[in-house]
Amino acid sequence: MIRAFLRALGPEQAGPVKRSLALTTAVSVLQGVVFALLVPVLTELLREGPRAALGWAAALALVTLVYALLRTLGLFVNFRVGGAISHGLHHRIGEHLVRLPLGWFTGNRVGELNRVVTDGVSRSTNVPVHIYPPLADAVVTPVVAVSVLFVWDWRIALAAAACLPVVWMVFTLSNDAVGRNDAARDAVSDEAASRVLEYARSQPVLRAFGRTEQGGQSLDRALTSEHGAARRLLLRIAPVMLAYSFTVRLTFALIMVCAVVFVLDGGLDPALAVALLVLVARFTHPLATAADQGAALRMATNRLDRINAVLDARPLPEPESPVLPQGAVVEFDDVTFSYDRKKDAPALDGVTLRAEPGTLTALIGPSGSGKTTVARLLARFHDADRGQVRLGGADVRDIGSEELSRHVALVFQDVYLFDATIAENLRLAAPDATGEQLDRAAALSGLDTVLADLPEGWNTRVGEGGTALSGGQKQRVSIARALLKDAPVVVLDEASSALDSENEALVTRTAVELARDRTVLVIAHRLATVAAADRVVFLEAGRVVESGAPDELLERGGRYADFVRTRERARGWRLTASDVTPPPASTATEDHENDPARARPLRRTRPGTSGAPGAVTAHEPS
Length: 622
Ligand SMILES: Nc1ncnc2c1ncn2[C@@H]1O[C@H](COP(=O)(O)OP(=O)(O)OP(=O)(O)O)[C@@H](O)[C@H]1O
Prior knowledge:
- It is a multi-pass membrane protein.
- Residues 20-299 form the ABC transmembrane type-1 domain.
- By secondary structure, this protein is an alpha/beta fold.
- It has two domains: 2-183 and 237-312, ABC transporter type 1, transmembrane domain (ABC transporter transmembrane region fold); 330-549, P-loop containing nucleotide triphosphate hydrolases (Rossmann fold), CATH 3.40.50.300.
- 63% of the residues lie in helices and 10% in strands.
- The chain has helices spanning 2-9, 11-47, 50-99, 107-152, 154-201, 203-208, 212-265, 270-288, 290-312, 371-378, 396-399, 401-407, 422-427, 435-445, 447-453, 471-485, 501-514, 527-532, 550-556, 559-571, and strands at residues 330-337, 348-355, 359-364, 386-391, 394-395, 408-411, 489-493, 519-523, 535-540, 543-548, 574-577, 616-619.
- The strands form three sheets. Strands 6-7-8-3-9-10 form a six-stranded mixed sheet, sandwiched between helices. Strands 2-1-4-5 form a four-stranded antiparallel sheet.
- The longest helix has 54 residues, at 212-265.
- The protein is elongated and about 115 Å long.
- 39% of the residues are buried.
- It binds adenosine-5'-triphosphate (ATP).
- Adenosine-5'-triphosphate is lined by residues 106, 339, 344, 347, 365, 367-373.
- Adenosine-5'-triphosphate (ATP) is lined by residues 106, 339, 344, 347, 365, 367-373.
């Protein structure tokens, strides 16, 4: 246990924890001495009267005083160490989590982490404060008392000493049973915690489809199995705990019988026998509670093992001499990657692609084809199994995570906002951003119109996870946050579920705008965005099956053309390769797919270029 404890706490906390445990052990030893001193005091009192007992009583009073002082000191020290453990563990877990690859944080880990950080840490904090002191009293005090018994009567001492190994054996059995069954219950509790979170999060979907009852079934099952595991734990440990308690009481009865026999034999002074039995009765009580404390310690050790498992998760290796990316070209060179090499087919299989600064690349393909995985490998959520992901000519593994994160801004679909103001949420990207910079990001992302409608503007609190804002509003905050970061590479995961048309068009517009001077990759679901891209990369089953300019691909009549046709049918769109005049000054025209009256070709050009013949345009069907 102590090894698991010290491993979890790390070297800084090891010293104070060892000192606290040593002090607690010393206090329990002293308690044994106090109990032992009762024997001469009582013997003299019963044999000769109070006067004869005075010397021993003074010694007892002195040792008791020292014991009380040390016990009080121990209490303070243990509470302080408990606080330091809580702080230290949170700190260590937190520091470790930020170094773990983002790919580690899958859905199930949320429930597990929640329990590790709350229940795990609080039980560990309890070890020096509430668990170890009574356990030391239960184990160390009797051992000291039995040792001292040898001074007064070796036969009684021998009888007590002979019982201790049996008591220890039953104690170990009970501890093992608790350990095994608690670990089994813990796994089931994790599952239940995850299901509770899932049930709460999926309420909108469940209600929308009238499946609240069915949706609750997996939660019901998880809770029922948690209840079953708790009952099994109780049923399996109750007999061994009872057996332990019985053994301790049997020990006391045995020693008492021995004492009576020796007194009747005339070999033991009755006064000494009474005193010895008082001593034995005194240490039997804490000994009887040892099984409870042992169980609590075993459960805490199980939690510590889980904390250690989190701390053992390997961070992605950081380069010893980080390389700075030279520019913002994104390259995937024959990249293969599997989430689970033993179980799954590769999510990416020999992917090669290149995205230049000042261009917009649309990643498209069927669901599960690997688009999001491309974005994740670029941001180094995971490392490629084979091949190289490069940014500005440098392998992302050689760049160093902080530098990489400065270079790549991600806007994912599942926008998470902190329960703070809109301004504070944006400043997460650039803590020192000026009001002017915030306003610029807001204007570019369309957040300015949202702010204008909110009475408290920038100071509006968004609620936990951004619940006080609509999906589109959250996305605007998220885009503005990415803009404020001012990273040369932006990855935008366009919402696959429908946002309102204004918000959808905004995402396309922002992507186009950003691509003027950045490398922009969009996981695109909308034809308008695809049409506005410079290059399209079509993925299927983790492979690039087609790539090139959208109009070229359309003319080629391959997978991309099929994709476009399917989408056109689904949305009543028509997308053609046509010769159109580039729009004047503006670099990006608006998407009016839902406004026939204003429908204009959607296309983009960069400064200094004119619309090339064959540019892809999107029209409402006539
Ligand atoms: N965290 C994960 N663990 C295991 N497998 C995963 C994980 N994320 C994705 N996959 C698998 O990897 C493959 C590629 O998934 P990816 O999310 O990259 O596809 P996608 O093209 O972005 O899909 P969609 O358009 O539906 O978001 C799929 O087979 C998917 O099941």
